[in-house]
Design goal:
The chain is α+β, with helices and mostly antiparallel strands. It has four helices and twelve strands; from the N terminus they run H-H-H-H-E-E-E-E-E-E-E-E-E-E-E-E. The protein has helices at about 1-10, 30-45, 50-65, 75-90, and strands at about 95-100, 105-125, 135-145, 150, 160-165, 170-175, 180-185, 190-195, 200, 220-240, 245-255, 260. Strand 11 and strand 12 form a beta hairpin. The longest helix is centred in the N-terminal third of the chain and has 18 residues, at about 30-45.
C-alpha cells in the first residue's frame, strides 16, 4: 500500500512524530487490499481533470473498507463510503449516503482536527517563481472570479509572469501565511502568485471542468524547501446495516502539497 501512495505522490511530504501510513500496520494485508479497491473506485468517479485527487482520496477512504466494515459492503456501498470519506476529509463537513438496494446507510464526519507545522519540498518554475514564503497548505481547485496577473512573488511589486482569466480553474497549493496571496500550480509545479480575492474555492467535484494539464520540462523546475502548516483530520465512518447494526471505524489524514495523505 505504501508503494501505491508513493507512486501517486509528486512531492515529498514528511510529518515528524507521525509515521506515514501507520494505520496500515493493523491488518495490513486486508487493509492494503481495501485501499487498492479505494484507489480503483476513486479512478472511476474522477474525471480526467481531477482523477489524481480522487485516486488519493479513494486510497484514503479505502483503508476503511479493508478492515471490519468491508465485509458488510458491496461494491456500490464501497464507492459511496469512499466518496463520503473523501468529501468529509477535504471539506471538513459531515457527509451522508444511502444505498436503497442494500438498505445500508453511512455517515462520515470529522471527529478531530489539528494543525501541524513542518517543512515541505515544493517544485516551482525556476524562471518565474522568485520567492516561496511559508504557506498554509490548501491543495485544492479554485475558480478565477476576475482576470488577474500572475506574479513571481506574493506582492504587487513582483514582475508579472502570466495571467489568469475569469472563469478559469486553477490548482492552489496554499495561501501565504498572514497575507492575502495564493500560490498556484501547473501540473503540481508552483507557477506564481495571485491576489486571494481573485479566486474562489470549488466545493464539489461536479463543478470541476475537464482541463488538460500542461507538461512541465524537468530542466525548468527547481525545488524549494519551506515551512508549511498542514491540516490533519480524523474522519469517522459509521455504517448502519439493514438490521440496524452499527459499525464504526476511524482514520487520520493530513493535507500535503499534492493532496490528502493517510498518516
Amino acid at each position: 500500500m505504501k508503494r501505491l501512495i508513493l507512486s501517486i505522490s509528486i512531492l515529498s511530504f514528511t510529518l515528524s512524530g507521525c509515521q506515514e501510513i501507520t494505520h496500515f500496520s493493523r491488518d495490513h494485508a486486508i487493509t492494503g487490499l481495501g485501499a487498492v479497491v479505494g484507489a480503483g473506485a476513486g479512478s472511476l468517479v474522477g474525471n480526467k481533470n481531477n482523477k489524481k485527487v480522487w485516486i488519493i482520496g479513494g486510497a484514503v477512504a479505502g483503508a476503511f473498507i479493508g478492515n471490519q466494515i468491508g465485509q458488510y459492503l458491496n461494491k456500490q456501498d464501497q464507492i459511496k463510503a469512499e466518496q463520503a470519506n473523501h468529501q468529509a476529509i477535504v471539506t471538513g463537513k459531515p457527509q451522508q449516503w444511502h444505498n436503497p438496494q442494500t438498505h445500508i446507510t453511512g455517515r462520515a464526519q470529522i471527529v478531530n482536527e489539528q494543525q501541524v507545522t513542518q517543512n515541505v519540498t515544493i517544485p516551482v518554475l525556476k524562471d518565474r517563481v522568485k520567492e516561496v514564503p511559508p504557506l498554509d497548505l490548501i491543495s485544492e481547485k479554485y475558480k478565477v472570479v476576475k482576470t488577474s496577473k500572475l506574479l513571481g512573488g506574493p506582492s504587487s511589486e513582483y514582475k508579472a509572469v502570466g495571467r489568469l482569466n475569469a472563469g478559469q480553474q486553477i490548482d492552489v497549493i496554499g495561501k501565504v501565511q498572514g497575507k492575502p496571496w495564493f500560490m498556484v500550480a501547473n501540473n503540481h509545479v508552483g507557477s506564481g502568485f495571485v491576489d486571494a480575492h481573485s479566486l474562489t474555492p470549488i466545493h464539489t467535484n461536479s463543478e470541476i471542468s475537464e482541463q488538460t494539464a500542461t507538461s512541465v520540462p524537468s530542466d525548468q523546475i527547481i525545488e524549494k524547501n519551506i515551512e508549511a502548516n498542514h491540516t490533519c483530520r480524523t474522519v469517522q465512518q459509521v455504517i448502519v446495516l439493514s438490521d440496524g447494526t452499527q459499525k464504526t471505524e476511524e482514520i487520520t489524514a493530513c493535507n500535503s502539497p499534492e493532496g490528502w495523505k493517510i498518516i
